[in-house]
Records
---
Amino acid sequence: MVRNLSQNPSVLSQFLAEIRDVNIQKDSMRFRRNLERIGEICAYEISKTLQYESVNTTTPLGESESKLLKEQPVVATILRAGLPLHFGILNFFDKAENAFISAYRRHHKDNTFEIALEYVASPDLNGKTLILCDPMLATGSSIVLTYKALLKRGIPAHTHLVSAICSAQGVEHVKANMPNTNFTLWCGAIDEELTAQAYIVPGLGDAGDLAFGSKL
């Protein structure tokens, strides 16, 4: 299932517009905060799909029945760009376990590249709800390879993939190549164009550099 959150107007549109804006992007703290806000919105939407149980809460004046999560999800992110989005999700699922994966584009002299994974830290995932976030879903290769690497830690009951901006091509790649069909892809927005260098247009540029500074 693919959920494009931009299809229904909300305050999410403001945060997406600001992370795209070349002038607002100059403020890296604001860029990180807006990604965090997008993560919070996605976490709230995901929370509606999870299972709950009734728990009695004692107040100063009596008892109140509350619906609380049966189980906390595991929140995973692709370093480094995914960290603000990750912490936004963690703001809502503050008791969740966490997983971190290092993935990057290893460029070659002929202008091609491959996705390299160098580090995976994850709890047991068997039967759990996994939320895997990456702010930009361009070709879709990174998130699919990351998910396959995480399967070595167990098979999730359901996986939620979260990206602020996706390309239409990347969405189709994920739909065709995810090894487990039991997943939901949450997109802040879906852009139609992907350049020959695999950058989303209009997109927003390099989310990692905008959040944390340029790299060598």
---
Amino acid sequence: MTDLSRISRNDFVIIGRAGMDLYPDPPGTKTEEAALFFACLGGSSANIGAAITRHGGKAALVTSVSDDAIGRFSLNELAKYGIDTTHVKSVGGEARNSLALVESRVEDHQSVIYRNGAADFQMTTEDVEAVDYDSYGALITTGTVLAAEPSRSAAFHAFGLAKAAGLPLIFDVDYRPYSWPSPQVAAETYSQAGAMCDVIVGNDVEFDFMADGAGLGLEKARELARSGASIVVYKMGENGAITLTPDEEFQTGIYPVNALKPTGAGDSFMGGLVASLAAGHDLRDCVLRGSACAAIVVSRVGCAPAMPTTAELEDFLASHPGPTEP
């Protein structure tokens, strides 16, 4: 089992996509009725990086972006958040950057994500071999990076290189069916990734999928905790989360808020969780702080720009009545 104490370096290498998010403005506007849009950084891995830097940590992204205006927008936005782009490669040809139109509304919410010929899937083994893994505290990735080649093989190669350097592997399941050639390929790939990783975070639907059956996800999470993972977080939406380790299992609630939108919670949770682990909080507190970060983000416009700073998180925790009973 990998030593998680290295996470305390608070310096993370993150594999996965960066893109542009467009939000109809003002909040509450439907996409098809919009005259104005608010643009910001998007993409699950980039959002996690933004969450970490907002908490004072360091993050470097490994991915590919398209060699066009959308790719350059993504690079500019990454720089604004202080995310290291040394290993972000621009690719030409027919590859196109991730683009999402996301509404700031809960009722009849619509998110439209363009991933045809996605540039981030062009990440190669040569790209991940260029990373000095010894200089980081942990590797973070999301399941999206595994959905197509050559990105899938490159990510698994990076896993091996990171483990050889002693880095904990942190995995956000993040299953997006539209990116995969088939559910069978996705399930097999996720099982392979889960067996390698030290910290695994996903929701109940994603764990059910990994287990190949509705209602089997929690036992899958327990199996992963028994067989090698140090921390597994099984999220259940408004019902909170169950956290499992080889030695314990506990349930935590959520922080109710007036949500503006349903998106961004998972990325914010992951950022808050790893930042809290790096700061030395006990595990239950880390999960609750991640949950609080998720609550903050769904009450704000955007994903990356909605990520709270540590000071904002502390203010939220001090003023909120507290989490629900699990």
---
Amino acid sequence: MLEKLKMNNFLVVGRAGLDLYADPPGTEIENATGFSAALGGSAANIAVAITRQGGKASLFTAVSDDAVGRYTRKALAAYGVDTNYVRRVGGEARNSLAVVETRSTNCQSVIYRNDAADFHVTEADSSSIDYTPFGAAVVTGTSLAQEPSRKATFKAMQLARAAGLVLIIDIDYRPYSWASREQAQQICSQAAEMCDFIVANDEEFAVLAGAQGGLNYAEELAQSKDCIVVYKMGERGCTTFANGNRFDTSVFKVQALKPTGAGDGFMGGFLAGLAAGASLPDAARRGAATAAIVVTRLGCAPAMPDASQVQSFMQDRER
């Protein structure tokens, strides 16, 4: 399975949108004197993190057929993300929009997802993808929250599996996108059952478990379906379960500007490490380093470091 990742070519499924950051940094949204624009959205951020560290990534999503959608596609292409599977949708659908603060504590993030364009991908879109060049498909759970995106995502996962791709899911639970927590549990559990890698934080594993606290469930999941499970704990690092073993990865201590983008950076760095042939512990450490750099910089996609920056950061910290 890990050998397949060395193809270093990833299909990423999920949202891409516009982020507006309150200016100047440190300002609350309600007191902002202006806003700076950047590419955002969890799937887009992961794809950018991969390309910044030398990998190839194609995004499977939909954007609005308007100026904001054109901005999003142009920004993805500028980061080297392939947009062949980014479809434009008309009508009233609009791109996902996040209005965010650059603050290390009490950081507000207001996300607009009403009839989001990325929910309009279809099974026909999934069937139009050529899966053969990819080593893995990375699914973000938000794409499962509504139809027709849900059916399209499951279709893409089925076709990716049939083509021999490794399946990876970031549960990426956003309560406002789902009809209920119970629905999220049912759908995300079904998707996780199909995957070789499951990455989530405590709340997200609790959603899968249908109970409070997900660490025990994460370990049980890794054992019961013989997959690799990464249990993220924010500033306490992460625990990885694989092949009957577990190991802990600590965070790198930094002076954070904001918390946003850390999870996406971790995923991108982790996958870039595995694609480069790193062991699971070394790849997790690379993911942690990527996340640490991201929280010290403005934005999410713009904050993703390249491979040399990650390597220098890790070497400096080890010294």
---
Amino acid sequence: MGAEKRTSSRPELWVVAAWALVACEFGLAIYLGLKQPGGGPVLVYTIGPPLLVGCALLLGAAGAVWSFFHRPFGSSQRLIAFCMLGFVIASASYPLPFPSYREGRPTAVAMHLPFRGEWTVAWDGLDEDINYVQRTRPDRRFGFTFVIARDGVTRAKLDDPHTAFAFDAEVLAPCDATVARVVGDLPDAGPDVRDDVGNHVVLEIAPGEFAFLCNLRQGSVAVKPGEHVARGQVLARVGWSAFSPLMAEPHLALYAQDTPDLRAGQSIPLYFHDYFIGEQHVERGVPRGAGFFIGRAPQGERVHAQP
């Protein structure tokens, strides 16, 4: 009886590991909350939560097997450990926005709309309630996605994404910049493309600040790395070289980050200057999106540049 009591009061190894896992999650949260520059937070944010969830599931399974063969199954230390593992799984699975060190510190570069004519904002760069997918992307948390809508639809034929009105539209430089990177040979294959960036042009708009213009048409890129471009210069045309379930048709994506390397940087907020929402002139602002759903009229703001 005494030996059994001493054994039951001693913390079991998997229970100690559960406490350690909770401590790791709190440590990860504190580190990300510091909002440090560099690639460390990107790496931790990207692999940390999935790793915590995987470890919690494995540890919970091991604890259940151990408890089944070493009764009583529902001892207090075991129940507490199972609750802690459940907490780790639930909290680490929740899609919290990436804590960019540039949050609240937008680029000082005066960005302009990268197109001619009227476009609709599908997803915008600052509204976390609407932009719930991009907010979990360290590189494009503050990114924008644009489509062309006419009479409430974005395609000439609903069943043919290639008839999207945005397809083959000109993409313009949003500011004076230097071309840092170009990819232009990927096919406009839509769902057959396993990439959500596709053909793209990367512009160095300021030291340590790079603008990405993505989903460009194959063979349409008209600039080269190292070339200086002026605001309004034609860079390429919209294609369908990128694909994601939420943007399953040609569109234009624009975002800024602190490195020219794909998926390796932290997103930078940006504001557009001197544009119109209908007839209302906006000197500096963030056009708002309202989501994008195939078959439904896009509800985001319709914007165009100075006539």
